[in-house]
Amino acid sequence: xxxxxxxxxxxxxxxxxxxxxxxxxxxxxxxxxxxxxxxxxxxxxxxxxxxxxxxxxxxxxxxxxxxxxxxxxxxxxxxxxxxxxxxxxxxxxxxxxxxxxxxxxxxxxxxxxxxxxxxxxxxxxxxxxxxxxxxxxxxxxxxxxxxxxxxxxxxxxxxxxxxxxxxxxxxxxxxxxxxxxxxxxxxxxxxxxxxxxxxxxxxxxxxxxxxxxxxxxxxxxxxxxxxxxxxxxxxxxxxxxxxxxxxxxxxxxxxxxxxxxxxxxxxxxxxxxxxxxxxxxxxxxxxxxxxxxxxxxxxxxxxxxxxxxxxxxxxxxxxxxxxxxxxxxxxxxxxxxxxxxxxxxxxxxxxxxxxxxxxxxxxxxxxxxxxxxxxxxxxxxxxxxxxxxxxxxxxxxxxxxxxxxxxxxxxxxxxxxxxxxxxxxxxxxxxxxxxxxxxxxxxxxxxxxxxxxxxxxxxxxxxxxxxxxxxxxxxxxxxxxxxxxxxxxxxxxxxxxxxxxxxxxxxxxxxxxxxxxxxxxxxxxxxxxxxxxxxxxxxxxxxxxxxxxxxxxxxxxxxxxxxxxxxxxxxxxxxxxxxxxxxxxxxxxxxxxxxxxxxxxxxxxxxxxxxxxxxxxxxxxxxxxxxxxxxxxxxxxxxxxxxxxxxxxxxxxxxxxxxxxxxxxxxxxxxxxxxxxxxxxxxxxxxxxxxxxxxxxxxxxxxxxxxxxxxxxxxxxxxxxxxxxxxxxxxxxxxxxxxxxxxxxxxxxxxxxxxxxxxxxxxxxxxxxxxxxxxxxxxxxxxxxxxxxxxxxxxxxxxxxxxxxxxxxxxxxxxxxxxxxxxxxxxxxxxxxxxxxxxxxxxxxxxxxxxxxxxxxxxxxxxxxxxxxxxxxxxxxxxxxxxxxxxxxxxxxxxxxxxxxxxxxxxxxxxxxxxxxxxxxxxxxxxxxxxxxxxxxxxxxxxxxxx
Length: 947
Known about the structure:
- By secondary structure, the protein is an alpha/beta fold.
- The protein is 40% helix and 17% strand.
- Helix 22 runs parallel beside helix 24 (758-777).
């Protein structure tokens, strides 16, 4: 008999599949969005809304997207879609960084050394352009596959004429203001890439270097030491970890306020910091040594600043004399307290030498090889030179000690080879001449919102401590430094009219014209060198730093494309945390330098993607995660859900096990949508919805209030850009209150009640509200799935006047959209009561589980439960009829009594099992349906069922 009732039940019906099959279905949905021009329709819908512009930081066009790219681009999509969903006007122009050494390097490898040596610059630039164009297309397809909405057909590319002209506009403004200059000072130099590097292009990793102690022969001995018996065999003992820089030595730096002594060792007198004598002796293995003492038996000492002016014979160029100076950069944590100083090979050395007017030597060429200026070491590579110089010092008898140390050392971010410090003529942005540093610091601290907040300290310290910005590079593929050199006297020619001519040239023909046209073809007649009057001008050969290029996007994109809805300043920049020393910094320096304001109102950063164990991903380690593989196996929505689940402000872990857990979470969410859709198949919101709060059951009232609270929590999390809190709130709601409590308790009512009964329609009304909230608040995250849910909406839930084609056009749920409206005080009242009731439920569910385990009952419907509770609990439970608890606990009978403690006793329900609903009830009350309970009989009568 029981089976015959199956067709009388209100079983769920929906076309929304249990199996997502995302890898196959998502590309079809992408094609649909493209055909429907969804990106443009969202903009049209919100055209009168407040603009919110996230300006895209350009990834480098040099290979397929990796998991870090995916992480970043999905986060940006969360920002944009969550704003668009709430009515903001959100144009999003993606961009690519298309110039620079890595592309040029790949073209070099492809051509081979012989062809590369013979190629002309215009041809090389054409090949580089083609390489960049290829990978722009590859990456664009990868980003689109992630479900990211953007104006993909009109991106910004840094090699386009208009963009290149923007570089010159900013350069012109800052140069004419006096912020840009050409100077000779030590910079990071990559001898592999043959170019200068800025601080942002440096990465640090461990290197093993020789640590050597060398004695430099003093020309004279200070009187106090001479009076104590020190003879002419006196030396200053220096320490260095870069022996190859010794041919450029011109000074020794001491700590100004440290005490220095003479130490007698094996007939020589060595000057060093008193504090480090024992450490040096141990390192050098001295069996006996003596600190020179005065007549009073105390060590003879002089402060570092008191030794200023002593001279010595240079260690390699022995025809030169060096000078003892002092500087605050000298520390006493290691070494001898006497630092070998080569002004051409280090920033600290350079600055202290400027102060004391110490000459700068540079015996190293562009290839990292010594010139004739290095004497007997001429022709050696700097790496080859270390052991050779050390051996030569040993032969000279000046090497006191040598050992190996492992320390953090700067490397080129492109080729990952160690760099050298090398003084060359370069173009710099001064951090102080026009008060750029001070102004930028003020803007950072007062005018920009940093997400997370502590990031202000990170970029602030970097700007506060950074040296002048080296913006010139010795390569071919990039935007040239837009100045000229007089062919006659070598002076720089750069005026407002020459800059304007170059801007017009780049805007109409692109920067390639710089390398193919003579300046006379585009410069105004009469332009001449202001020094000697010559009209023969030579274009600068160096190109601009790629960080400068990407940094000026605030002008080349946000300003130039304002007719497309972009704004200056942009509302947000969002990139990896490394961009505090990269794009975030180059953008604010060029913007403040040109306009006096930040290019962004807010900056949000994300961490790096690491493997499941927290290790950096690399090809050699074989621990990388390819987003294409993830999408081919699980789909983009699983990847997007993972991004939402992590705290992006820190480094995040990803691996197969993590993705499997994410896939399981996705299945839970998907099955919830399927339950909601299936149980609303016969529901028409326009005529079936219960419009009165009082007509809802207490359980329905609580569920409606609970989803209202979820909406508020999620909205606050989106406002704070805390997507992991969105994920947590939604997931905990779905697996907890919704699935484990409300939907579980509701099944009997939904399936067994008469289809149009008030109880069933009340439940469906709440489920419809829940569906509307979940599908809209999850649309920014699960873009594919929520759109699929939207398509699967039952006819009765579709809007009058046309259902939007996508949930992304549906807008954000508002409190006023809820039906019925929660009355004033209703939310607090039902929440307070159910806070107690759900506490009772936890105890009941545990007791039921124990009863099942003990074989006392099979299913919970067999149970009759007696609950003993304190008066403080009964004050709340007595507000509701027993039927509320029977439904909530999924049992057949519930009774309460007062007692000191909360306890539950499980018994077997009286009555018989209803073959239709399986609850234990009195059967036979309705003569038309004598085999079922009264509730089921009424339902059967309602549909005209005959036995």
